[in-house]
Amino acid sequence: MGGPGGHPEPPQKKRTWIWFVVGCGVLLLIGLLGLGGCVALVASSGSSDDGVRAGDPVTTATAVEDAEAEEAVEEDVAEEDTSEPAPAPEVGTSRDNPAQPVTDAIAIETSGGTMSVTLGNVTWDANSAIAEANMFNEEAPEGQVYITVPVTVQYTGPESITPWIELYISYVAEDGRSYDEASVVLEGDFMDVGDLYDGGTAEGTMAFLIPEEAVGSGTFSVEGFLTSGTYFVAAV
Q1: Over the stretch 188-210, which tens digit does the pLDDT of each residue have?
Q2: Arch. (CATH architecture) of 106-227
């Protein structure tokens, strides 16, 4: 067809290149967005290793607490190392740490001075000796037995003392029960020891009636008439 004035219409120009440019721009934008997402993901993963970053306040607080705990443990160990063990009780002052017969002497304060007391070894079955010593001595009841122990005393001080009045001894069994001196007559009875003056020494024998199961163990308790302390000597 012809245009106005009888001239033919010019041909329309093709715009394919515009769409090509637009398409390339869209693809480039999508690529940039994808690359930015990958970079952000990698950065996020690297900064959150183990859930805590270096220099995180939580990590710092934990390190301080651990250091304080170690210091406290070191202080406790140092205190334990410097502590001294409790001293052992003096020999003869307890049943767990008794004095020994024959070798150990116990000093007992008396009304006048000091009496040194030493016990000897025990005769664990003195039934026959006691029966022979006096016909009026009672036999040991069934399940019981007489035992005897020699006692040596030495006096130091003014005037004189009567040993059997100044001294009290009993037998203490392993179960804690104590037994007083038996009322029997003995050869060389401790009650027959006379008065002692300064430097005087004497020996006598004491007898005790105890259960048979108490034989071979136990201690002797030793006390002075005017003293409150009690001493112990092994019964062997």
Answers
A1: 999 999 999 999 999 999 999 99
A2: Sandwich (2.60)
